[in-house]
Write a structure and sequence with these properties.
By secondary structure, the protein is of the alpha+beta class. It has helices spanning about 35-40, 50-55, 125-140, 180-185, 190-205, 210-230, 285-300, 305-315, 320-335, 345-360, 360-365, 380-395, 400, 410-425, 430-435, 450; strands at about 15-20, 30, 70, 75, 80, 90-95, 100-110, 125, 145-160, 165-175, 235, 260. It binds adenosine monophosphate (AMP) and magnesium ion.
């Protein structure tokens, strides 16, 4: 039983299409999230029932569910696309959690919708497992993110470059409203829908907000915090299109994403990002670009548009200030600094500079920085020792570091190994990796040591592919 309490479905009808999932032949539950279920007010024992499996597969409609595909637009790699929308996803409805938070429950991979264009509306197992593992790891590391409630295989073959096993993920989010949702209503000149969307978002995510300018400020701050968190765990989203930017400030749409192994600020993993638009170091700049599109979509709500442009520009220009403060906070904690400030910037940047030069492993450098083997990550050990002396002089708190530096992240080669096993219907590696990455700060044990190890040269996986 899922205690649905739906609100999006009461927005203007042109913002979505009611749509049911296309049934699948042979659904099997791979994994379900008992702790998240409890937060949502769902009995965790119910997750393992055939009734739950059928709902997660789209073969049954849950009581209270009013499934719909939402409409949105977006800039993809900088190019305007007016006709996106949930092409392979369905919002089943919303629940009010035991924590009082309203959340969406969405299927991804549930079949065609009016927004599918030439797509089949399906997902294959690989991206479903990647999203499950990475989103739950992000949550465990304190990064705002959508969550994973369940994953099923469908018994259906989906054809990409080759025939692949089909799967569906059940995703949970504070909402699935994107910059692209606002953009679509603005582009259509549909002021009624735009202002209904504004009211909905304020009510749902930012109750303190009383104007479009205040909403833009709140969303700007949320993005600044989010991107700083990504940077602090070495995360490259890979496809920061405006349709993949959540208004609520969560990481959304885990496609060709990856965590860096070796620190390289220019890291790009996505096979389709040939220009490196969404490289690690570009993420803050791209966030500003995306916020400018959001601001543009709010202009029609403003009585004096010229004044609004000026006001909104000033709000977006403050992004670097918010971001840099969040970055210092996040990286200051990684160095165990008490009350980190702008004065610590050089200390942080100089370490990153050495890491880049010596191709140090991002996660393991920070996880072991206070240990006796810290210099192992560096070729120029004298330079590292000189840096370390400055750090010792500044003073650090190992307890702060222990809660800011994950020991285990879902490294790309491990995720790929999980997917390869999953293709042979072996999900034990998936369960093992999930257990490890959802306890990211726990010291490695015999069972998890392999996940903490950086990949050897020949184990590295440096390219990821879109979820389609
Ligand atoms: P994404 O790159 O995953 O954010 O998707 C961009 C757009 O393409 C969204 O409108 C998706 O719904 C749509 N899309 C992606 N894959 C498929 C698919 N297999 N079938 C239908 N639509 C898809
Ligand atoms: Mg998307």
């Amino acid at each position: 039983m899922i205690p649905f309490n739906n609100s999006y479905v009461h927005l203007p009808a042109q913002m979505f299409t009611r749509q049911t999932a296309k049934p699948v032949p042979d659904p099997t539950l791979i994994i379900a999230n008992a702790r998240l279920a409890t937060t949502l007010g769902i009995d965790p024992d119910w997750l393992n029932t055939p009734a739950a499996r059928d709902i997660f597969a789209g073969n049954a409609v849950a009581d209270g569910s009013e499934p719909l595909a939402s409409a949105y637009a977006g800039h993809q790699f900088g190019n305007w696309n007016p006709g996106l929308g949930d092409g392979r996803a369905l919002l089943l409805g919303e629940v009010l959690g035991t924590d009082g938070v309203r959340r969406d429950i969405q299927l991804k991979g549930s079949g065609p919708t009016p927004y599918s264009r030439s797509g089949d509306g399906r997902a294959w197992l690989g991206p479903v497992l990647r999203e499950y593992l990475v989103s739950e790891a992000m949550h465990a590391m304190g990064v705002p993110t959508t969550r994973a409630l369940a994953a099923v295989t469908t018994g259906e073959t989906v054809v990409r470059e080759e025939p692949l096993p089909g799967a569906i993920i059940t995703r949970v989010a504070q909402s699935h409203i994107r910059v692209g949702t606002f953009q679509l209503m603005a582009a259509r000149g549909d002021i009624d829908a735009l202002s209904a969307l504004f009211d909905h978002v304020v009510d749902r995510h930012f109750p303190e907000v009383d104007s479009p300018a205040a909403l833009l400020t709140a969303v700007t701050k949320a993005q600044a915090k989010l991107i700083a968190k990504w940077m602090s765990v070495g995360f490259v989203h890979g496809v920061m299109n405006t349709d993949n930017v959540s208004i609520a400030g969560e990481t959304i749409d885990y496609g060709p994403c990856a965590f860096m192994d070796v620190y390289d600020a220019a890291s790009v993993f996505s096979a389709i990002d040939r220009q490196g638009r969404y490289a690690y170091q570009n993420q803050p700049r791209i966030a500003v670009w995306n916020l400018a599109q959001f601001a543009t979509s709010l202009i029609p709500l403003m009585p004096d548009q010229d004044a609004a442009i000026e006001e909104f520009t000033a709000i977006i220009n403050a992004f670097p200030t918010h971001y840099e403060a969040q970055w210092i906070t996040a990286f200051g904690a990684k160095l165990g600094l008490d009350a980190p400030s702008e004065d610590d910037r050089a200390l942080i940047s100089d370490l990153l500079g050495l890491m880049q030069q010596d191709r140090a492993d991002f996660t393991n450098t920070f996880a072991n920085l206070a240990g006796p083997d810290a210099h192992d990550q560096f070729v120029d050990r004298a330079a590292f020792q000189a840096w370390s002396a400055r750090w010792q002089a500044r003073g650090y708190d190992a307890d702060i570091m222990a809660t800011a530096n994950p020991v285990i992240i879902p490294r790309n080669h491990q995720v790929e190994a999980v997917i390869a096993a999953g293709r042979d219907a072996d999900f034990s590696p998936c369960h093992a990796l999930l257990a490890a990455v959802t306890q990211p700060y726990a010291p490695a044990t015999d069972a998890t040591a392999a996940f903490a190890r950086a990949p050897a040269m020949d184990e590295r996986v440096t390219q990821t592919f879109c979820g389609t």
